């Protein structure tokens, strides 16, 4: 009986391995003219690719930090850098003016690792147990932010700060909590009930961030 069970298990495992998809190609440069699917973009024909298809040159310029939050993010995700499609990696540049902030946000589909290139940045995240992990980062410091957890970056220095963020997904996703609440048309009474903020404070924040409702 035991021998039969072992033989059956071996057959099941062999069938399972046989059914696993093999890596049929080295890369899948995104065809942005096609629709995005749950598994990413369809691939461009390899015959249409050149060396330039695997190079992105959009991170050399500073982002525009003349806005309400004093910060800018320049992404190199699949939509901007088609070569990362399907590879499980991407990168973005962060520019922060003095006192600039990347507000509390999450990346639902990717872990993040942040490298500070210029300035002083206070960064942190909140675990699902509501424990805060915060650190003041200097040039050369690196901090990781696990997927799906609220986190932030603040320029606490006197000059502009620059950092590069790498992600474990070509489409890490982004939801900024203050913008979701106060730059949307979510009714004010819902925000007041769910955040315990006063009506006047909700209206002030909606006016500041451009929300309605």
From TrEMBL:
<protein>
    <recommendedName>
        <fullName>Germin-like protein</fullName>
    </recommendedName>
</protein>
<dbReference type="GO" id="GO:0048046">
    <property type="term" value="C:apoplast"/>
</dbReference>
<dbReference type="InterPro" id="IPR011051">
    <property type="entry name" value="RmlC_Cupin_sf"/>
</dbReference>
<dbReference type="InterPro" id="IPR019780">
    <property type="entry name" value="Germin_Mn-BS"/>
</dbReference>
<feature type="signal peptide">
    <location>
        <begin position="1"/>
        <end position="24"/>
    </location>
</feature>
<keyword id="KW-0479">Metal-binding</keyword>
<dbReference type="GO" id="GO:0030145">
    <property type="term" value="F:manganese ion binding"/>
</dbReference>
<keyword id="KW-1015">Disulfide bond</keyword>
<dbReference type="InterPro" id="IPR014710">
    <property type="entry name" value="RmlC-like_jellyroll"/>
</dbReference>
<keyword id="KW-0052">Apoplast</keyword>
<feature type="binding site">
    <location>
        <position position="105"/>
    </location>
    <ligand>
        <name>Mn(2+)</name>
    </ligand>
</feature>
<feature type="binding site">
    <location>
        <position position="112"/>
    </location>
    <ligand>
        <name>oxalate</name>
    </ligand>
</feature>
<keyword id="KW-0464">Manganese</keyword>
<keyword id="KW-0964">Secreted</keyword>
<feature type="binding site">
    <location>
        <position position="107"/>
    </location>
    <ligand>
        <name>oxalate</name>
    </ligand>
</feature>
<feature type="binding site">
    <location>
        <position position="107"/>
    </location>
    <ligand>
        <name>Mn(2+)</name>
    </ligand>
</feature>
<comment type="similarity">
    <text>Belongs to the germin family.</text>
</comment>
<feature type="disulfide bond">
    <location>
        <begin position="28"/>
        <end position="43"/>
    </location>
</feature>
<dbReference type="InterPro" id="IPR001929">
    <property type="entry name" value="Germin"/>
</dbReference>
<keyword id="KW-0732">Signal</keyword>
<feature type="binding site">
    <location>
        <position position="151"/>
    </location>
    <ligand>
        <name>Mn(2+)</name>
    </ligand>
</feature>
<dbReference type="InterPro" id="IPR006045">
    <property type="entry name" value="Cupin_1"/>
</dbReference>
<feature type="domain" description="Cupin type-1">
    <location>
        <begin position="57"/>
        <end position="203"/>
    </location>
</feature>
<dbReference type="Pfam" id="PF00190">
    <property type="entry name" value="Cupin_1"/>
</dbReference>
<feature type="binding site">
    <location>
        <position position="112"/>
    </location>
    <ligand>
        <name>Mn(2+)</name>
    </ligand>
</feature>
């Amino acid at each position: 009986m035991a021998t039969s069970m072992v033989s059956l298990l071996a057959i099941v495992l062999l069938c399972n391995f046989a059914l696993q998809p093999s890596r049929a190609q080295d890369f899948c440069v995104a065809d942005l003219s096609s629709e995005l699917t749950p598994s990413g973009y369809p691939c461009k024909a390899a015959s249409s690719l050149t060396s330039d298809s695997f190079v992105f040159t959009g991170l050399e310029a500073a982002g525009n930090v003349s806005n309400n939050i004093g910060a800018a993010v320049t992404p190199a995700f699949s939509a901007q850098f088609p070569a990362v499609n399907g590879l499980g990696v991407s990168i973005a540049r962060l520019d922060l003016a003095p006192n600039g902030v990347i507000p509390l946000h999450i990346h639902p589909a990717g872990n993040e690792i942040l490298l500070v290139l210029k300035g002083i940045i206070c960064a942190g995240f909140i675990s699902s147990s509501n424990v805060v992990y915060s650190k003041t980062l200097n040039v050369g410091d690196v901090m990781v932010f696990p997927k799906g957890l609220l986190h932030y970056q603040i320029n606490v220095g006197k000059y502009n700060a620059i950092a590069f963020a790498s992600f474990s997904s070509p489409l890490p996703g982004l939801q900024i909590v203050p913008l979701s609440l106060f730059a949307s048309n979510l009714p004010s009474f819902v925000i007041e009930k769910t955040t315990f903020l006063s009506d006047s404070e909700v209206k002030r924040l909606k006016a500041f961030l451009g929300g309605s409702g």
